[in-house]
Amino acid sequence: MSKLIHPAARPDLDIAQFASPEQIAAVRRPLNQAALLPASFYAHPDSHALDVEKLFMRHWLPVARTSELPEPGSYFTREMFGEPILLTRDEQGQIHAFNNVCRHRNRVIAEGHGQCKGTLTCPYHGWSYGLDGSLKGTPFMEAAENFDKLEYHLPRLGLDIWQGFIFINFDVDAPLLSPQLKTLDQVLEPLKMSEMACLDFDRYQAPWNWKATLDNFTEAYHQPTIHAGIDPLVPGRGAIYDDVDGPYNLFWIPNAPGTSFQPVLPEMENAISGGLVVVNVFPLFHLLIDPSAIMWLDWEIRGVNDHDLIWRMMVPPESTQVENFEAKKQELYGYVKQVWDEDVFACVGVAKGASSRFTTQGRLCPQEKSLYQLHNWLVDQYER
Ligand code: FES
Ligand SMILES: [Fe+2]
Q: Which of 84, 100, 131, 260 has a beta carbon 3.0–4.6 Å from 88's, enabling a disulfide?
């Protein structure tokens, strides 16, 4: 099947429109000499289109948990960057990812999520599709000549399942994600994330660039100044930034025993020995792991200075049964909200500063090693 040229595609965008070769080279200098990603990548009116072209249309994006397709016949839909996505679980239990657009007159086929009996039917003229994406029913098409249903399969998206998360890739030729995360698997394995329950936690609208949010969650350097209240308990200066061998980064904050002030869930405490672990899988999969829960930061990114951050909480299924779980969740919410409000204060100021025409390229602190890894990955992708 031949793809149409997308009217919003921006093949013209080039890294040179956002930064000089010297500025890019400065990002790539050794850690102790490096500069940060220039502000134009956060504020230029075309920076969102650049991110869509170079990052989101080419790399692995977390879409759902496997538990959101609980049994054969389950379907789940979502839109990312204007692209309607359909996930299904077929009769054999296998998960599929498709472009959720009818092969007749392009109506979106399924909406929301739910359970079907083997086929999904487009509500416009009634074409129906199997859970494997094959076209099944085509009302009144008997008289159509040279029409072969086999040629009207739903377009597949790249699909990979890792740690209980369903990732899709709009680039179907991209190499699979999970083989690139084998070292990270060793860190995460004791947590048994694929068995965890995933609960809605909160959603925040953020009127600044999504990368400012990601940067903010990617280093502990800002903790003593922005989060002076929590820093003595979880000291940011003690953060350990790992070397990595794939499209991810992580850092640890060892936590003094007994100082955890969130509601602790025993299984989690055993798994990470009272520490705090922050993980990014580039470009936008983010986990904040502490002894009370894992926070999965999910995103809806709409424009240069417009995104929602969707916080989802993951815990071992047994933990949801502990006494006062809801009260513990609320206690954690109170803590997270306070920290988030402090981060908002930082990010609102960044949005203002990054759009100033007098802004110069910032200098990285060696304590921001995770940012160094992220920004180098970003310039590699922007240059491709
Ligand atoms: S657009 Fe789907 S059946 Fe016509
Ligand atoms: Fe913060």
A: 131
Residue 168 alpha carbon to ligand 1 centre in Å: 25
Chain segment 303-359, per-residue pLDDT in tens? 999 999 999 999 988 888 888 889 888 988 888 899 999 999 999 999 999 999 999
**For residues 95 and 159, is the Cβ–Cβ distance under 8 A?**
yes
CA of 235 to the centre of ligand 2 (A): 12
User: By alpha-carbon position, which residue is closest to atom 1 of ligand 1?
Assistant: 105
Q: Which domain holds residue 369?
A: 181-382
Residue 129: φ, ψ to 5° = -130, 140
Angle, nearest 10°, between helix axes 210-218 and 369-383? Answer: 140
Are residues 322 and 257 located together in one domain of the fold? Answer: yes
Is residue 89 very low, low, confident or very high in pLDDT (cuts 50, 70, 90)?
very high
Rounded-to-5 percentages of helix, strand, coil across the chain: 35, 25, 40
Question: In this structure, is residue 81 part of a structural domain?
Answer: yes
Ion ligand 2 — residues with CB under 5 Å? Answer: 343
Q: Predicted confidence band at 291 (pLDDT cuts at 50, 70, 90)?
A: confident
Is the Cβ atom of 102 under 6 angstroms away from ligand 1? yes
